[in-house]
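Input record (one chain):
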Amino acid sequence: MIAKVKTTNPKRYSVRPNAGIISPNSVCSITVTMQAHKEAPPDMQCRDKFLIQSAIAPHGATNKDVTQEMFNRRDEKNTGEFKLRVVYIPANPPSPVPEGDEDGASSTASSADDEIKRSSFSEAARSTIIKLKEEKEAAVKQNKELLNELEKARKQTRQGRGAASIRILLYFLLLGILVGYFIRK
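The corresponding structure, as predicted from the sequence alone:
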């Protein structure tokens, strides 16, 4: 079978491969890459669509032999089309509960993992999401450790400043007594 993917907005989406031959009872992976928006659409609506066309391949045809003429609808039995509409899904807002707390971390993590498992992501996408989640948790933990170290350093600096000011005061007091003693003589 020959398949081809078209889009209503070719400047926004890159489809690789966009056409090719698929053997019977086999699977083909197609990568669709969307160019980033400068701003999110205000209504989160999208009119972009994809058209997947298929046709029976001539015997012995290769990917180089695929042409647009093969998808013309001369024979309705031997061609097929399927339309896909693009839907924007907003990113989840950040949780008001800080991550990493012992009380809520396990329930939040397990619900996020359950959501990933139920979704229709590919195995590669799932592993990437899990890896990014682990990296985020490690970064949050490291950030907390650095904040604790910074607080300790501030406390030590405050204590050191107090001791230094007492020493300076004692030096000036001693200097004043000595100067007063020498002035009287």
